[in-house]
Amino acid sequence: MRKYFIHNGQSEIGPFDFEQLKTLQLKNETPIWFEGLQNWTTANNVEELKSIVHSTILPPKFKNFSEEKSNPNPPIFSKPVYENNQNFAPKKKKTLRNVLIGVGVLAVLFFGLVIYASTNSEQNYNDNGEFISSNNLDDQDAERDRINAELTEKNRSYRNNIEQYVSASTNQYTYNELGGISNLDIIVTNNTEYLLNEVNVNIDYIKDNGGIYKTEIVTIYNIPAKQDKSASAPESNRGTSVNAKVQSISSKKLHMCYDNSFAPKAGEIDPYFCK
What pTM, to 2 d.p., does this model score? Predict the structure, then answer.
C-alpha cells in the first residue's frame, strides 16, 4: 500500500495511507510526496487523490436571469470619436517613430560589435614591449601549451624534491627518566601548493643507550596546502626520545605516490608520478 508524506509549511509529516489522508482535508496546493517521485508535488497533481482534495475555488455568485428584462433589439452602435479620446486615435505617426528608433538601436549595436572585434583582435604587450596575450586562436593554443609545460615542470620538481617540502616533527612530549613516553603528537608540515591526501610517519622510540625500543606508524589525512596538521601517537613504557620521519606520501592533485623505502631506477626523471 502506498504511503504518503505531506508538508505543513514548516516540516514534513507522515507517512499516511489513503484512508488517513481522507481525514486531513487536503487542498489543491498541499505539498505531497510518495515513493516513486523525484521531487515534491501538490495534491491536485496526483490522480488518485483528486477525489478527496478540497477545492478552494468558489463558484460565481448566482444571478437570476429570469428577473432581467428581455431586450430583443441589439444595442445602438455608436461610432468612436477619436478627437475626444486620444487613446483610440490612429497610431501611424507613433508606429513610424518606433521603427526609426529600432533602426537606430540596431545601427549602434552593429558599429559597437565592429569596434569590439577590431580592438580584441590586437595582440597585447607590456610596458617593455614583451608579448603577454593575444586573441588569435593559434597564439592562445601556444600560450596554453606553455603554461601547461611550466605547470608540469613545477609539479615534477615538487615530486622529485618532496623531502624539502614535507616534513614531520613532534611536540613537547612527556618522558620519564627511567623510560616511558606520553602525550606525543606528530606534526606534518606541508609546504607544497597542493592537498596531501595521506602521509605516513615512521616513529622510532629511542632508548637511553641509543637503541630503538619499538617503531610505530602514524597516518595523517588531508593536510591542506601551506599548512600543518597533527595527530596523536601511541605512548610507550620505555624510551626517552623519539625520531619521526616521513615514510610515504600520496596526493591526487600532485599525482604523487612517494615512498622513502622505494629506490628510484637510475635515469628516471619522475619516479614518484602516479595517476
Answer: 0.50
